[in-house]
Amino acid sequence: MPEIAKLTLLAMAFLLIKHALADFFFQSAYQYANKGRYGHPGGLLHSFIHIAMTIPVFLILPSNLSLAAAVLIGEFVLHYHIDWIKEQIITAGGWTPNIAKFWNALGVDQLFHGLTYIAIVAVLIAKPMG
C-alpha cells in the first residue's frame, strides 16, 4: 500500500476516534444543553475541545502553521454550526430520543462531521508534506 494511503487511513481513523471521544465521552451536560443557544459558551467550548483534540493529526499529516490554523478554524466553525443547526431542527420538531426523527437528525449530524474529516484530510494531503 502506498505510504500516502496508509497516512490517510491513519489520519481518518484518528479523527473518527477523537470525534467519538469528544462527542460522546468528553461532552458535558453543560455543553450539550447549550449547543442550541447561538454563541453560548457551552457550545463554543464543545467545538474548542474538538479542535484541540484534532491538533495531533498534524503529526500524521504535517502542515505549515497557516494551513493548520485554517484547518482548525474551519473545523471549529463547521462543527459549531452543524451542532447548532441539528439542535434547532430537533427543538423545532419537538423530537426526543424516543422519536425516530431525533435519531435521523443525529445520524445526519454525525455524517456531516465525518465529511468534515474527509475534507480536512483531503486538504492536508493535497499540499506537499512538511
Task: Throw out a few tags for this protein.
mainly alpha, 6 helices, 130 residues
- Count of individual domains: 1
C-alpha-based Rg, rounded? 16 Å
- What is the typical, i.e. mean, pLDDT? 96
Count, helices: 6
What do these coordinates show?
There is one protein chain. With 130 residues, this protein is mainly alpha-helical. The chain has one domain (3-126). Helices cover 79% and strands 0% of the residues. It is built from 6 helices and no strands. It is elongated, with a radius of gyration of 16 Å. The two termini are 21 Å apart. The mean pLDDT is 96.
What is the secondary structure topology, with strand pairs?
Layout: H1 3-25, H2 29-34, H3 41-54, H4 57-60, H5 65-93, H6 100-126
Helix pairs in contact: 1-3, 1-6, 3-5, 5-6
What would you say about this model in short?
The protein has one domain.
